[in-house]
Design a protein that fits this description.
Helix content: under 10%
Structural class: mainly beta
Radius of gyration: 31 Å
Largest sheet: 22 strands, antiparallel, barrel
Length: 964
């Protein structure tokens, strides 16, 4: 049998198996667990879920939770908490990859149910560590409003629980989509170490990680210290077939190091002998590669009219990261001690540092007088490097200059300045402590705890190898010769290192977030009911969140040597560098919350009711920004027999607008998206919003390889959003088949007054299809058709409504061949609708996203799943993992069908455990058949959704762990 046939057979068999099981029991998420050794006893007494602050084992009635154990984390092959969680089928588009085409900038998020308020955001998921809050993340261009999972050292995490049915009444605001509770190391004695190395079959994307955990238990106290290190190396877009060249066809000449020159006066010039149309707007000139510019009348001989294919240049292959490098160091420590017979102390501390960067192509310069993206420049006939001026031997009477009020334009890839590089250095500090204990009241035992924490995230960023427009304007002007320190600039040939240094600029910025949090809880049994004790929990929380963003002052200043709009020049610029501008931001909010929760057993050992339990919760939250509100939750769990649990919940959610959403100052950005008016009005006669766009307009030729320049900002008029969540499900644990458990759960979440913004693609599509008022957020250059600004602001949209089904099947069994454990998780996204107001009046605009992938970094497949089969016999073990991502739509395009294909990844791992020091050695391969991401036109120029798929390809690794 041919190898390719065998691969296809294996992949197809796994694919069919997953789909068949998914159809039998649609969707819920759980990571694969390795089977215990054959000689270990296995007891599955109850399907354990959490989601309650009441301390009890049997919480089946509260809701569904995905539990990840220490072994699950090891088996996952993940190098970070985010990588682990993002593989769950219930996880939506989440920040990852650290690539040039994304906005993660080294951060990692978890976005359950696709409900994040912005691209990859996890701001509707509450992330806790041991039940306590974590500080919000920071970023390259401003702070975040969700937890960055890369601020947590992986070594400190021993397990995780993911609650997916809404829990604002129990845990507080932000828990609309669910709760992720990460569990730290338990006390132990000794030393545990683990190291891992992996690399792709392409020889890149190498990853190194190491963990060393130290534990010591004393008579009445215990100490834990955890050290973690991770280093990920990059993958270049040029090193994968899919990402090497954009899918968008090149229909006209784009920017290159040879430049594109529109120079009034050169067309049909008698002195230079140029033909009509030479260096004109429709037929720009380019420098001929390898040529030397002649003097006098021969100056134009080094230039030619740019055309394809001779002047094609691929900016996508110029050292750009598909996945960027990252390095993380972390230390976590915890000390616990019994202060008295029933009082314990806990003190924790953490420091984590992440260094990451994203490499871009060199600056794609686009300047001119009254044309170009950045305007107001002038090149006089006396400029030192003007080949058509007197400095090159052209008589003064024939010399050409290019004034600020002329429609001249130069576009050029600034190779001499170097590749742009965004660099981040993020430091996370956390100190926390608390007391907990027990007391007796009304003849019953109660538990209490108080806890306080302070944490801070701070980032120092650099944007290397940008261009200083002010120095460039001065270097092109006559004033340069009389200005101390000025270096004349050559834009018509290769720049010297001194010229590149003079216009090169590095922006240095910082932002930070802080959290102060104090909580107090009490839980116990109030009294006995016929079916069992009535248990309650109650508590109080005070929290203050702060954020500060300090952008580069020079980047945000007005230029000195370029006319500004304030000077009355309509063609002018108000930016000093190629770095995107933004306003400084500072904000904070505080809140107080109280809650109460009760677990009420109604029936036990009755006819058709082995048990019937009701869970109730209520919380009141009072913000100093949006006021107060109450949320409630009720859950019912009914066991007609021990083998069957029928459960359902209704919960209310509440989320106040974040500091980012409220106070973020206006910020320039670049959106990824396809312009429906590409080709101009003549190519899109059925799109009224494209009227006036010139024929031949090609999006890829403008604004940094076709990215869309825009502005985003906060909105102080936002109000809180609320949510209603319904879930109903069934859990089976048949006695006639020990080791089998199965769950299936339906959910529906409706977010009212949802805080969100339309994507750039949505804004452009509405403008193109409707025209008129729908184009109010899009500004174009009238002469070229290029988008010069797209405004995206957050608002309280009418509604987000999503529904679906989760299912999990687990089966563990022993044979003479060893112990086996099989897991199948699936998630079916039935619907995801966003309803927003119609700016023209009339019926609201409804956008159904389920099954679609026609927007950048926003793939919503109906089906996702993962499955595994683990085997263990004696000291040997093996594990197969499979992960399925269903197909979705793509935008209609000229190069492929409007569909993004489904994909199935296969992973394989084998290991051996030695008796000495419990040393375990594992060797594995992820993406065994080297599956590339499915091509997506909507995600051009990188051509795939970097937050859903992985461009790494086949990845082999070895992991070694030991205990001393």
């Amino acid at each position: 049998m041919q190898a390719s046939t065998l691969r296809a057979l294996c992949a197809g068999t796994a694919h069919v198996a997953l789909l068949a099981a998914s159809l039998a029991a649609p969707a819920h998420a759980q990571t694969a667990a390795a089977p215990p050794r054959a000689d270990e006893a296995v007891a599955i007494d109850t399907i354990i879920v959490t989601g309650s602050r009441i301390q009890r084992r049997d919480a089946d009635a509260v809701g569904v939770v995905t539990t990840l154990t220490e072994q699950d984390i090891k088996n996952s092959g993940a190098n970070s908490v985010g990588e682990l969680l993002q593989k769950l089928p219930s996880a939506g588009v989440s920040l990852s990859s650290n690539g040039t085409q994304g906005t993660s900038y080294g951060a990692s998020s978890i976005n359950l149910r696709y409900l994040g308020g912005a691209e990859g955001s996890g701001n509707r998921v509450l992330v806790l560590v041991d039940g306590h809050r974590w500080v919000d993340g920071v970023g390259q261009r401003g702070f975040r409003d969700f937890v960055d999972l890369n601020t947590m050292p992986l070594g400190m995490i021993e397990g995780a629980e993911v609650l997916k049915d809404g829990a604002s009444a129990i845990y507080g605001a932000d828990a609309i989509a669910g709760v992720v509770n990460l569990k730290t190391l338990r006390d132990f004695d000794g030393v545990k170490v683990q190291t891992k190395y992996g690399v792709s079959s392409h020889g890149d994307g190498a990853s190194y990680s190491g963990v060393a955990n130290f534990g010591k238990r004393f008579d009445k106290s215990a100490l834990i210290v955890s050290l973690s290190y991770v280093k990920d190396k990059p993958i270049l877009t040029a090193d994968r077939d899919l990402t090497r060249v954009t899918l968008v066809p090149t229909t006209s000449v784009g920017t290159s190091p040879n430049g594109l020159y529109i120079l009034p006066g050169l067309s049909n010039n008698t002195y230079f002998g140029t033909p009509a149309g030479f260096a004109a707007s429709a037929t720009p000139a380019a420098l001929t590669a390898g040529s030397t510019i002649g003097s006098g009348a021969a100056a134009d001989d080094a230039f030619h009219t740019a055309s394809l294919p001779g002047d094609y240049y691929n900016t996508q292959a110029q050292g750009i990261y598909s996945t960027g490098p990252s390095e993380r160091y972390g230390i976590y420590g915890r000390f616990t001690s019994d202060l008295a017979d029933k009082i314990r102390l806990k003190v924790e501390g953490l420091f984590n540092e992440r260094k990451s960067d994203q490499l871009f192509s060199p600056v794609l310069l686009d300047i001119g007088g009254s044309a170009g993206t950045i305007r107001g420049f002038a090149i006089s006939s006396k400029q030192a490097y003007n080949p058509f001026g007197v400095a090159n031997g052209v008589p003064a009477a024939n010399a050409l200059g290019f004034a600020a009020n002329q429609a001249w334009r130069i576009r050029k890839v600034m190779n001499e300045v170097g590749n742009r590089d965004n660099v981040q250095d993020v430091k996370t500090y956390r100190i926390a402590g608390g007391l907990d204990g027990e007391f007796s009241l009304l003849g019953r035992d109660w538990k209490w705890d108080v806890y306080g924490l302070y944490s801070k995230n701070k980032i120092q960023t650099q944007a290397l190898n940008s261009v200083n427009y002010d120095n460039l304007a001065l270097g092109l002007s006559d004033a340069c010769a009389t200005t101390a320190g000025c270096t004349p600039i050559n834009l018509f040939g290769t720049m010297t290192s001194a010229q590149a240094a003079y216009i090169r600029y590095t922006a240095r910025e910082s932002n930070q977030t802080e959290i102060y949090d104090v909580t107090a809880n009490v839980t116990g049994e109030l009294f006995q009911l016929p079916a069992g004790p009535l248990s309650i929990a109650a508590g109080y929380e005070h929290r203050t969140n702060k954020a500060l963003d300090t952008p580069d002052a020079f980047v945000n200043a007005l230029p000195t040597y370029i006319p500004t709009p304030a000077a009355g020049a309509a063609y002018a610029s108000n930016t000093t560098t190629t770095v995107q501008t933004r306003s400084p931001t500072k904000g904070q909010y505080s809140l107080d919350e109280v809650y109460v929760e009760a677990a009420v057993p109604l029936l036990k050992d009755a006819a058709l009711a082995k048990s019937l339990d009701v869970s109730l919760a209520a919380r009141y939250s009072d913000y100093d920004t949006v006021g107060g509100d109450s949320t409630f939750k009720v859950g019912v769990g009914w066991k007609p027999i021990n083998d069957i649990l029928v459960r359902g919940t209704y919960s209310q959610g509440f989320r106040a607008p974040s500091i980012l959403e409220l106070y973020q100052g206006g910020r320039q950005t670049s959106f990824q998206g396809a312009d429906p008016c590409n080709g101009g009005a003549s190519a899109n006669p059925k799109l009224p919003g494209c009227v006036g766009v010139p024929t031949g307009y090609n999006q890829a030729n403008y604004n940094l390889n076709g990215l869309i320049p825009g502005t985003i900002s906060g909105n102080t008029k936002l109000k809180a959003e609320t949510a209603d969540t319904y879930s109903a499900g069934l859990a089976l644990k048949p006695r006639f088949l020990p080791g089998l458990t199965a769950t299936i759960d339906w959910y529906e979440i409706t977010v009212h007054d949802a805080i969100a913004s339309q994507s750039a693609t949505q804004i452009l599509s509405l403008c193109a299809q409707q025209g008129g008022v729908f184009c109010g957020l899009v500004t174009r250059d009238a002469s070229t058709g290029a988008i010069t600004n797209l405004v995206q602001g957050v608002q309280n949209l009418s509604q987000i409504k999503t529904s679906g089904i989760d299912s999990t099947i687990r089966y563990e069994f022993s044979t003479d061949l060893g112990r086996f454990a099989a897991v199948l998780d699936t998630s079916y996204l039935e619907s995801f609708k966003t309803t927003s107001p119609n700016p023209a009046g009339g019926a609201p605009i409804v956008d159904e996203r389920a099954g679609k992938g026609d927007q950048p970094r926003a793939t919503y497949p109906h089906w996702k799943g993962q499955t595994s089969l683990g085997w263990n016999k004696g000291s040997w073990n093996a594990l197969w993992r499979g992960r399925y991502i269903g197909g979705s739509t793509d935008v209609t395009n000229p190069v492929k069908d409007a569909h993004t294909k489904a994909i199935f990844y296969n992973d394989l791992e084998g290991g051996y455990q030695f008796d000495k020091y419990d040393t375990a050695v594992s060797v594995g391969v992820s993406n065994l058949f080297d599956k590339a991401p499915p091509a997506s036109y909507a995600n051009a120029p990188i051509n795939y959704d970097i937050y859903t798929y992985d461009a790494r390809g086949r990845y082999a690794y070895v992991r070694v762990s030991a205990k001393f």
